[in-house]
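ligand=pyridoxal-5'-phosphate
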Amino acid sequence: MNNFTSIDYSPEKMDMGQVAFKQAYPTFETAQLDELRAREYARLDKQDQVYLDYTGGGLYAASQIRDHMTMLNEGVFGNPHSQNPTSLAMTHLVESARSYVFEFFNASPDEYVVIFTANASAAIKLVAEAYPFGPGGRFLPIFDNHNSVNGIREFARARGAAVTYLPTVLPELRLDADALKKQLDQVQPSSHNLLAYPAQSNFTGVQHSLEWIAKAQAKGWDVLLDCAAFAPTNRLDLSAWKPDFVPLSFYKIFGYPTGVGCLLARKAALTKLQRPWFAGGTITITSVQGEGWHYLIDGEAGFEDGTINYLNLPAIEIGLRYITGIGLDAIHERVSCLTGWLLDQMTALRHSNGTPLVQVFGPTDLHERGGTIAFSLDDPDGARLDYRRVEALANKANISLRTGCFCNPGTGEIVHHLTKEEMAEAFNRPSAMSFEYFFDWARREHSRNPSTIRISVGVATNFADVYRFMRFLHGFVDKPEAEVNAVELEYTAYDTVRDTA
Ligand SMILES: Cc1ncc(COP(=O)(O)O)c(C=O)c1O
């Protein structure tokens, strides 16, 4: 904790604030970041943007785009996996990207395969649709999963496996070790059982222990470790940790390109998967004259349906090399310092009557957490401020934050105290609800506020960004709810219904 919580965050006092910040967080390395920010992310300051949604999507560096465009402009590339020169040139770059993914995650090609997918969700679906769920088997997700992992349950249920959700526990929203152990003990011999959890919550930033991987495997479970929110600012060392399936999206790590993710899968676990179909590129031969005649290709090729996103794959290597050049540990440290400072400041903000402005959901210190902070704001009388108005005001201040449930409904239900009965009401209706409708309905019918505000910091975040964000939050001190409710909303039809990251 620091001792400068009374600062008013005025621009004139930022230098003073930064000095105090560096005293409290001496490992924060300003010079390297300032240089990087000016060289690679100049557009942020040119447009006066404060970007605080790295968990939604990372930001690309100028050099990543330049290097990729140079490669495209200077090369002649055909569809890979043929024997002509332009195809071979592309195959070479695709395989080089694949090798670099192994290197980045310290994974042995003897033990793992890298399957390129469209995104983390597509990687998860490869497992979901092919995992041998069946009667006697189990699917064990946790409340803190992203919807793309929650969706696995539809395959599990359809095939007769039991589905049990493990809750996380307030206030830190971590797993209850005893409850998890008890669940892990319940496996039937020769059944197939899948535990699925995020290494880092995309909602609260909580890092769920990687120790569960080996413990679960020892009891006969396969483990899907969702690293979409973890990988951008934490080292995932697959020589030390051996999850069976690791889905992730690359744009979350380095911003560009979108549309490429991967599934790192243990070879031993991959052989268990039974693909429900085949596609171009996944088989050696098939025949149209016999049903069911096809040979699936071994390894990653058997899971890469159709033509891979080949022109973008070299940009994955460019992006990973760029992150390696900065140093993932340096990024991790920077993000930790900024998160620690933000938590100190946010939890210290008080209205004049002494009531807290900010309610943080999840850990309020740096112990086993990443750079994502979820919160709500309350007025001096304790009335929860409408997240839509807060977002509208942030928009006016050129601050990109995220609101909603972040596709993580389980944690939303816990932190906003939505009961199973209330949720049942929301689903026992003649027509579907949008998220917007659900929010208004839960407020009206049950006095719940099932929406959250989220900020997340990343590779290019500097002190000026977080300081400006605190200035923005400070503007809510002593503001009555009625005043915030007078803020006009500007909505597109689109953002009321989509909430995917
Ligand atoms: C923890 C987590 N898992 C999975 C996903 C899905 O990623 P994508 O939308 O790139 O498929 C996200 C996206 O935000 C996430 O944060």
